[in-house]
Amino acid sequence: MKKSTIITILCVVAIVPMLMLVFSIKEAKAVQNEINATPEIAKLEPRSYEWGKHYPRQYGSYMQTEESSEILDVLEENPALVIMWAGYGFSKDYNAPRGHFYILEDNINTLRTGAPVDMKTGPMPTACWACKSPDVPRLIDKMGETDFFTGKWARHGGEIVNPVGCADCHDNETMALTVTRDWLKRGLDAEGSRPFAKATHQDMRTLVCAQCHSEYYFKATKWTDENGEEKVAKVVTYPWDEGTSAEEIEKYYDDRDFVDWTHKLSKTPMLKAQHPGYETFITGVHGKNGLACADCHMPYVREGGVKYSNHKVQSPLEDIANTCLNCHSGTEDEFTSTVERKLERKEELHRMAMSVLAKAHLEAAKAWELGATDEEMAPILQDIRHGQWRWDYAIAAHGSFFHAPEETLRVLGSAINQGQDARIKLRIVLAKYDAADYEAPDFSSKEKAQVLIGLPFDQLVDEKNEFLTGLKQEWFVEGEEKGIYDPRSREGMKLKTSYIE
Amino acid sequence: MKIVATCSVVAALIVFGYLVAESQMLSYLSSEPEVCITCHTMNTHYATWQHSSHRAEATCVDCHLPQDSFTKKMFAKARDGFNHSKAMTFSTYGANLRISDDAASRIQENCIRCHDSLVSQMVENAQRYSRTSSHVRGGRMCWDCHRGVPHGVTRNLSATQQNFVHN
């Protein structure tokens, strides 16, 4: 055979398998591109269903938060609260929180948000939406923070239509944990010891929760819009400049003469604590040992060979095997009873504090009625303000008794002390006005208490019912028309409140 | 005929060049773990390694290639390259990949190399074992007991779904 023929044959013999390899590589690359493709999710996409198409396990477990559907009326359980919050929304309606599935529904249904009839009516500002929906960062991105925070709650009615979901905590391109509420970053930087820029992935597993489960207030901020009109925005702000303890935040508010509301009965310049979950958690043993919220409230679970974070955010006691027992040895029963005992201790001091503070308010009201002066009452009102602030700080985050039991009990102790200090001073004033043996009236039921504070409960309920059948329904229709509303987020939703039979 | 022969040689060289480009052949000269996931078959193993105790201490080549001599390493790479290409072209592998005896002995050598101070006595005592495998030093594979290290206990390629390999 000729040399050139041999060469040709050899080349062909070499080319064939090389080409086969090339083609199999090309095929494999096409599959690889499919696997590695980042799902196309719009920036700040508020409809969690769109994210769920690509992450069915996380979405599916998140939707299971629908299971916690029962309403627990906290005001019925503790009627003293009605007295303590006289003149403030919480005296109207306060339920134990349900799962995240209900976060928007409960915000809209509560008597606290009132019964607006249009975009400009109702008792609450727009900031009340701030922690309830991924439509909030979407809107803030669209209109800017100060504009978002201006106006009444009802202003954003047809725009905020999805409950808390994927977009609140995850970046749409990388799925990385991300903070969508800038006030958290500002608060952390103001406090200084845990600047946001230094947050690790483990820190983020707490910080995405701290976007909402922290104490806040609405800071009145003046601004001028593009038409030259002067407006006031109520901006969600974290009061952490002095620190995150009960005393430090108290000082922050006192230094600014900040008042959440003036108590209807005792005229005390009051403070309200809203769930300082983050602030208390970091002082407790689990926080100090580097655990994050997600470690216990979103534990890893395994389905076959796949491991993912369980997005059914709930009490860790519902899944002790995957939460406590990852690190602790012991039995489920032991842990349940240990936690129950912790709760009992908190309840003991909690009930004491409520009784003391409610009576202090009622006794102060009597003193005013008998003609007490501002000068006589000022130190008493300070004690009540501080006492109730501390009590609220200790219990407003319902898990604090567990996250930071020592701090919770310590602060409750100081609350009881301040409340009693107020009442000792009140006895002197009452004695001066010939009422030394005055006893506060009976407030042993929610109904009695609401009558005592002059709350027009039936009227509020009637107005609310009109809102529920009217404007509320319109909002979701609007949202659907705008293409931002995901009806699956409300599938199977039954209207449940504390005031509808 | 000479022209045909010349054209065939040129064609072969062009196809070879194309193959080098498509397969990123030159990248296999490096030791970066990311090179191993040029083939998405290895995604599971990359991901499980990234979540394992060895993630900061050992990369793919630290365990899977001989580290005691350059020539041995290069010949091993060449053997692997040939076998991988064959398997890829003819789709001879399924979802449950298992290493060959040759690869197992390489890995064992590397386990012993890094963990020498811990296992040297054990390796010596291995002569007294009654049941042994001949292809690994010490007679028993380290991972007969240390089963999860580092690629986890669930070995199937579908075990790590939605596995976005991030750097």
Word description of this protein:
The complex is a heterodimer of chains A (501) and B (167). Chain A is mainly alpha-helical and 501 residues long. Chain A has 21 helices and six strands. In chain A, strands 1-2 form a two-stranded antiparallel sheet. A two-stranded antiparallel ribbon of chain A has the order 3-4. In chain A, helix 15 runs parallel beside helix 18 and helix 16 packs antiparallel against helix 18. The longest helix of chain A is centred in the C-terminal third of the chain and has 38 residues, at 332-369. In chain A, 40% of the residues are buried. Chain B has 167 residues and is mostly helical. Chain B has a single domain, classed as Di-heme elbow motif domain (Multiheme cytochrome fold). The N and C termini of chain B lie far apart (52 Å).
Tell me the CATH topology of one domain in chain A.
Answer: Flavocytochrome C3, Chain A, domain 2
The unreliable regions of chain A are: none
Helical amount of chain B? 40-55%
Computed Rg of chain A: 28 Å
Would you list the SSEs of chain A in sequence order as H and E? HHHHHHHHHHEEHEEHHHEEHHHHHHH
* Percent of residues in β-strands of chain A: 5-15%
CATH architecture of one domain in chain A: Orthogonal Bundle
What is this structure, in a nutshell?
Chain A has helices at 3-36, 48-52, 56-63, 74-77, 80-84, 103-109, 135-143, 145-148, 182-191, 201-210, 246-255, 277-281, 285-288, 293-297, 332-369, 374-395, 400-403, 405-432, 446-452, 457-469, 471-482; strands spanning 217-224, 230-237, 261-262, 269-270, 300-303, 306-309.
Keywords:
heterodimer, A: 501 residues, mainly alpha, Flavocytochrome C3, Chain A, domain 2, two-stranded antiparallel ribbon, 49% helix, elongated, B: 167 residues, Multiheme cytochrome fold, 7 helices
